[in-house]
Write a structure and sequence with these properties.
Blueprint: E1 2-6, E2 13-17, H1 31-42, H2 47-58, H3 63-91, H4 100-112
Antiparallel strand pairs: 1-2
Length: about 110
Amino acid sequence: FVSKMNVSGADPVMLVPRVWANPHNFDFDYIGSAMLALFEVLSLEGWLEIRDIIMDRMGPQHAIFVHIFVFIGTLIGLTLFVGVVIANYSENKGTALLTVDQRRWLDLKGRIK
């Protein structure tokens, strides 16, 4: 579409063509591309570019969503990572490396007590 732009002075007006275009590497028009962009933000690879484009196009108040998404996403990811490490540690706490006979012996010893 074409919009008017006041140059200066009392009445000079210049018509300027405008184009509504998405950034070349992401958009939020479709659910797939939005999920891909949010995955890129969550992986912390290039998330600053997405944040800067959102700030330029929508305003600085919309960058809060990106920061909250990164904070909550990394918090959940860190919690899952720590949970997996603790689960593997408790699983391998001494019984994972035992043979079948050794496990049977420990089981029998536990039943006797």
